[in-house]
Amino acid sequence: MPYSPHPFHWVPAGGARHASADEKHAVGNYPTGTAVTTLCGDGVIAENTAVAWLWPTCATCNAEAHRLAGAQMSSARTRREFGKDGR
Q: Which of 57, 26, 30 is nearest to 45 (CA)?
């Protein structure tokens, strides 16, 4: 199994970028058409296309991914005033 720094992976599906803890193939992302259970609890079908990766991030998956990664979510004000990384 390849190295993964977190117990989840991002997957575009159902019109949003979701996070999932489902096992994925050794190389690459979840192939288009793969049934995936997301951190927000939705069962969705992966759509691994260039355009799908531009979809908005599921807020519930994002919050749970940050919790699992032990990372604090930055506020919209922090991102707007100081850039994405808060500097």
A: 30
* Phi, then psi, of 79 in degrees rounded to 5: -65, -40
Q: Summarize pLDDT for 6-58 with one digit per residue, the tens.
A: 889 999 999 999 999 998 766 678 899 999 999 999 999 999 999 999 999 99
Domain-embedded: residue 4: no
Q: Phi and psi for 81 in degrees, rounded to 5?
A: -85, -30
Domain count, the chain: 1
CA-to-CA distance for 40 and 77, rounded, in angstroms? 25
Q: How far is residue 34's CA from residue 37's CA, in Å, rounded to a whole number?
A: 10
User: 17 forms bridges with which residues in the sheet?
Assistant: 12, 57
Q: How far apart are CA 20 and CA 27, in angstroms?
A: 16
> How many angstroms separate the CA atoms of 72 and 24, rounded?
26
